[in-house]
Each structure stands twice: as C-alpha cells, then as structure tokens.
Amino acid sequence: MDMFNVSDARVSLYLHIPFCTTCCSYCAFYSEPKTHWNGNLDSYVQRLLQEVILVEQDVPGFDTIFIGGGNPGCLSVEQLTSLLRSAQRKKKSREVTIEMNPESFNESFFPLFAQNLVTRLSIGIQSMQDSVLKQLQRNARRIDNLRAIELAEKARALYGIDISFDLMAALPGQSLEMIYEDIDTLLSLSTVEHLSLYCLSVEEGTELARQVATSQTTVYDDDQQMTILLSVWEKLKREGFCQYEVSNFAKHGSTCLHNERYWQYENYIGLGSSAASLIKTEQTMKHVQQTQALSEFAQSPLFSGYQEEFLDTNEQIEEYLLMALRTTKGISKQYLLERWGIVFDQYFAKKVATLDETWYTDTKQSFSITENGYMVLDEIILRLALAISGPLDRH
To answer: What's the predicted TM-score (pTM) here?
Structure first.
C-alpha cells in the first residue's frame, strides 16, 4: 500500500468497475460481459471497498472522484453508497462523477444524488439512431436513451447535479446529418452543459477491428473524419459550447474537474482491475498499473496485482506534452521551467519551427494546439518529443 503514499491535498481517485451486460464492438476499455462474471461481482466490490478504506486513511482526502467502467450501473446503489461514503470520510470531494449506461440508469440510483455522494452524472448516449446503436452492439436503443435523458433531467431538477452526455462521430453508417440530429435532440430535451464527443477509433483487439479487417464493416478514412469533426465542432460552438479538450465541450465553465486532473498531469490514484495511477513527488514520478482480470482481482489479496513503473526525466516530459497538448490551455511554460528546468522557447524552438503555423498558438505563457492542429496532434507530439530523445541540457 506504500505505493499510493501521496501528501497532495488535491489527489483524485478513480474506481474502475469492469462489469458490463455485453461488450460494445468498439470498446477498448477493460470490461467483461455478464457471461464471464462467474459470481465475482460481490467479492470484487468487497476488495475494492477495503482498498478504498485503507488508501483513504493515508491521504488528506480526495479532491475529485470518478467511478467508471465498464458500467457502474451493474452495481447496486448500496454497493456504490459504501464505496463513496468510504472515499469521502475525511472530506467532501469537490466533484464526484459516476458513469451510467442508458439502459441501466433508473431512479433506484437517486439516493446517491440525494445524499450528495454523487454530484455529476455522465451518460454514454453515443448515438440516437437505432441503426447506428445496433452496429455498435450497444445494449441501449433510442427509447432507452430518451428515457435516460428524461431521468437525468429529473435528477438535476431534484438534486442540482451536473450532467454530461457522451456522443460519437464518424461511426459506420452515420452521416453528418445524423450527428447534427443527435445534438439537436439532446439539446431540445436537456439543459446539458457538458458534452464529450469522441471520434471513432478502431482499437486493436476489439470486435470492430475484426470486422474492419475482414471487410464486414467500413469506416471513414482520416480525411473524411477530419471533415466531419470540424463541422460538428463548429455546430457545438454555435450552440454555445467551448472546446476545452480535444474531445470535451462545456458551457459556462462546466468542465470535468476530474479529467482536468489527468490532463494537467496531477496526482491521481486508480483502484480496481486495470486502473492506473500517477503518483509524483518533488523528486520522482511513477505510474501504478493494476494488472489483474476482474476474477483474479476478486479472489486475490488486497493490493496485489499493482505494478509500479518509475519514469525518468525524459519520459515525464514526453507524457506531460502528450496530456497538455490535448487541452486548449496547452503546455505551461512556467510548469516546464519549475518542474524540469526547461525553457520551452529555447529547448523546443527548432521543432516548433518545423510545424505549420496554423497548427498552434504560441504565447509567453503557453504553447497550445488549434483546431487544425488537433487533426495532426500525433504528428505534433512526435516532433516535439524528438527534441527530448537525448540527455536533457538544463542550461
């Protein structure tokens, strides 16, 4: 348990719930379908609860909490209540988010909001089109999405929670007009002030990857995806949403505080099967990765299966660039100087000179990516990373 020692008063907590009814064709996050649970749900939650209790004792409290999956809706409200009460014994977290699949969300979860254990609800709508949802092998259909939106609005009215919806773009069989219609439907039925819009990515090992490889499914190419994304981003802008990260949009500053912790490269602890942590001190930085499948996690001793990996200076800087450039705030030149003694304008000058000027915005305080730059984000990160492939010259 010493691997999670952190004195940061703003450390965050992520709890991974790897249970799903069935697995969607595109999903690369670790989860298991119900046919593979083998009666391990209760024992999984019991171990997770004990780890939360012990870790919470050794930290000042959790600034933000996020329960994700999988589908946390597979747990009972009593199990979720126990986890969240235990995680907030020292202090109330500024933000507590729980993910829910539309077909699982119902009023039985409302006590989480009534007791102020959860302040933010994130629902994975993905699409409002039945044909697209079927292609994705989602359990929910349009009618489930509509019911979940209505319930979310009821929870907001009763308890004042924040709501976020996930949508996907460039899906097989999905036209630009369909995406517009999805957005219009959401905005007509909800007062939502946060949207996550993810472009379809074909991840290795998924059912979708198999379908593409065997020509059962055709996906949009990069140029087509770029055209779709730029059009949808422009629509969201017209609707009053501000893009604060490559896939996230908010009105009136309603950003996800927890996810901003990741992108700002701050301390967070991840518990549960496949969960990841970032722990840093003034001198060191490390990842902690949970490696056990849910059945092994459920049947193994507390804190087994967590592996530490310390990052050298070059690895730390590369990862910071990778996370910071996803956001509109971009790279903080002051943070680079304070943390690693690097003057951005000197150290990266030659690599920045190779970039198209329409890709970035460079000020005295920061270096950030434009909408055009987001389309070639991997290329920009690669070029900048080449500047730190050798020993760092701190002078």
So the answer is: 0.94
